[in-house]
Structures are given as C-alpha cells and as structure tokens.
Design goal:
Layout lengths: L15 E5 L3 H12 L4 E7 L10 H6 L11 E3 H7 L7 E4 L6 H11 L2 E4 L6 H14 L2 E4 L5 H16 L4 E8 L8 H10 L6 E5 L5 E8 L4 E8 L3 H14 L4 E4 H8 L2
Parallel strand pairs: 1-2, 1-4, 2-3, 4-5, 5-6, 6-11, 7-8
Antiparallel strand pairs: 7-9, 9-10
Helix pairs in contact: 1-8, 4-5, 6-7, 8-9
Length: 265
C-alpha cells in the first residue's frame, strides 16, 4: 500500500531518479524515492568542492552505513556526465542552487534525462533561458519553486478570487522556521497570482513550522481566509515526484501549474 506522500503519483511508471542536494528537502526526496518501492535512486549529486564529494550517501546523511540505503557515492556535478551513462537517469531533481540551473540543462541534454528545478530566486529572464536551452537539447524541464500540490491549488484559487472580488483587499501571512529568509519566494508568487497591486506580506519565524501560507481577503461585506500548511517536507518530495512523472517524455519548459492541471484530468 502506498504511503500518503506517494498517493499523488500512484500509478505512474517507475522512474530512475538522480537527486542533487541533500539538505532537508533533498533528504526527504531521497527517502520518498526509497520508500516508494517503485522508483530507483540512480545517483546523488553535489556541488563541486563539497566536503561530501565521493562520500557514501548513508554515512553523509546519517553518520553510518544503513542497509536500507543503496551503496551510492555522492558525485560532484563536474563529474556527473562521465559518471552517468545515457539512459541511467530518467529525471534529475535539483535542490541545490539557482546558479546551477543552466548547467543542469546542459548535463541532462548529454545524458538524455529530464529535469525538475526546485530552486528559487530565478529571474524571468533566467527561466526563459532555461526554456530555450531545454528545447534546444530536446529535454523536458519543470520549473517548480513551489513544489507542494496544495500551494499551487491555493494560488489558482486566489487568482480566481481576486477576479471575482475585484474590490477586495488582500494580505498574506507566512510562517516558517527561524532560518527561512523572509518573505518567502512562495509568498511573492501568491501575491503575483492575486495581481491586485502591492499585497502586504507578514512573516513569522518560529520553531515548529515547516511552512504555512495564509491569504486573507475582505471587501467589507465578506471575509475569505485560505490557508495551506506543509506538515512535513514529505509534501515537497511528493510534489517533486509528481513533477518528475509529468515531465517524462516531454520537451520544453513546464511549471507546477501544468503538473497540477495534469493531475486533475
């Protein structure tokens, strides 16, 4: 029986997946692949110069070798093309840094892999370049700075809400752990989806939150509150797996909106 975090991509074809970055979200992604009993963790990549380059995955993540984890060495990006054969990886999921995006598109073009970009802070011009290069290299790329399916549904709803209640005022409240930059990139995307001038964003940084985004709209006659909360980073992994499954067999640039629309069909 699939775990809750794997229900979104239940029934999709098995995938061979490489993960770049093994922070909190990357680690959750690795665990989700292994727990699926369906997909294969083909490789784990790191930035060049990382102290963990060539280290054993299990020892890096948990400080010891665990039998439930594959015996994989962490591969620096500069060595990935030589280390990975064409067909060895179906999809690369990148949690590393936005500056690596174009390099990953180049690499994926060589190894015939698709790509899910989960990093934030990209400018529209940078994303346009990613799309152009993806088409040139004949690979599919999902740009997914907001991985959870629920937050994308929230943005879709508030975009409609702002059209129906054109005279309403909106504010956004987001709550995250203390080390999260404020405001979040997600809050900015929610504000843009509202498209109603400058939307105030209020940030709370306290231990105990994974991620909460709340939108409050009022026109003086009605007040609507829409909230999304990620209860664990497994939600990010679930969205990344859905994006990976979606992009297989495609060419060009897609977004999580495309992924969510596909899930709803």
């Amino acid at each position: 029986m699939p775990t809750d975090q794997n229900r979104v991509h239940e029934g999709r074809n098995a995938m061979k997946i490489a993960v770049c970055g093994y922070g909190r979200a990357g680690k959750a992604m690795i665990e989700s692949i292994l727990e699926s009993n369906e997909h294969e963790l083909s490789a784990v990549l790191c930035r060049d110069g990382s102290e963990n380059a060539s280290g054993n995955l299990s020892e890096v993540l948990y400080g010891e070798r665990l039998s439930r984890l594959p015996d994989l060495s962490i591969t620096p990006m500069s060595e990935a093309v030589q280390a990975l054969d064409p067909g060895q990886v179906d999809v690369v999921v990148d949690f590393s840094h936005k500056d690596s995006a174009l390099s990953f598109v180049e690499m994926c073009g060589i190894i015939h892999s698709n790509l899910v970009i989960c990093t934030t802070g990209h400018s529209p011009e940078e994303i346009a370049l990613v799309g152009e290069l993806a088409t040139e290299k004949s690979i599919g790329v999902v740009y997914a700075p907001n991985l959870t399916v629920g937050i994308n549904l929230l943005m879709e709803f508030v975009a409609k809400l702002s059209k129906v209640f054109g005279d309403a005022s909106f504010e956004i409240l987001e709550k995250h752990p203390p080390d999260k930059a404020k405001p979040t990139a997600t809050a900015g995307l929610i504000a843009r989806s509202i498209g109603n001038g400058e939307i105030p964003v209020h940030s709370i940084r306290l231990d105990g939150f994974v991620g909460v985004h709340e939108v409050v709209a009022s026109n003086g006659l009605e007040r609507i509150v829409v909230s999304h909360e990620s209860l664990s980073r497994g939600a990010f992994a679930c969205g990344a797996l859905a994006a990976a499954a979606f992009v297989c067999g495609k060419v060009g640039l897609y977004t999580m909106e495309d992924v969510v629309n596909d899930l709803g069909e």
